[in-house]
Known about the structure:
By secondary structure, this protein is of the alpha/beta class. The protein contains 11 helices and 10 strands.
Amino acid sequence: MSARDVIIETQSLTKEFKGFVAVNDVNLKVVRGTIHALIGPNGAGKTTCFNLLTKFLIPTRGKILFNGQDITFEKPAQIARRGIIRSFQISATFPHLTVLENVRIALLSKTDKTFRFWESERSLEALNGRALELLDTVGLREFADYVTVELPYGRKRALEIATTLAMDPELMLLDEPTQGMGHEDVERVTQLIKKVAANRTILMVEHNMNVVETIADTITVLSRGQVIAEGPYATVSKNPQVLEAYMGSAEVELQGAHG
Length: 259
């Protein structure tokens, strides 16, 4: 694997909170054009790791490289301009606007007219074509005129993917994309992630092992802030350290999902 294949990399990434080490010497390499899953039991450091990558937290030690450039101390807005876009943990949607209007606002953020809500309706309508294409991509075109708050939960997540895509990400960070969903929505969103990953890179935190098994090319397992295993699902799911870290119920889930 050459350096050009790696889109984002961490070197000895460490985050301490008053003596508690939440992320401990993590070396992560995400290969361009793949779906990479970050998994681990509760308290493993997954969300802290995401917060470091998206600059909501500054590391205690270590480096973060994006396309070979050091972004360790850049601000969230700077890395968003680089094409690192995070979705899901903080909803990117406005509940009382329509589905179409939400996507148009996300598209506006890529122009020099960012969030000028007083722009004429005509100038906003110029974005309709691209907005409808994005809604097509995520299977929401028929919902374009719905007020977002009226959407079923799984469809709201699809809308969040559409607004993330509107930002034209080079690297999409998905934080628990199927959390709280019923089986049908999980299946729909899983297939949607697979579809939108066709020409971009995705790094995702995900608890649902069936989702991870279905779409992840590479899995990194964290436990107590450290990487304990990495590789394809078939390898990681049999790793004794991983099974021990998940203790009992999750061990059954891991093995069951593998079967």
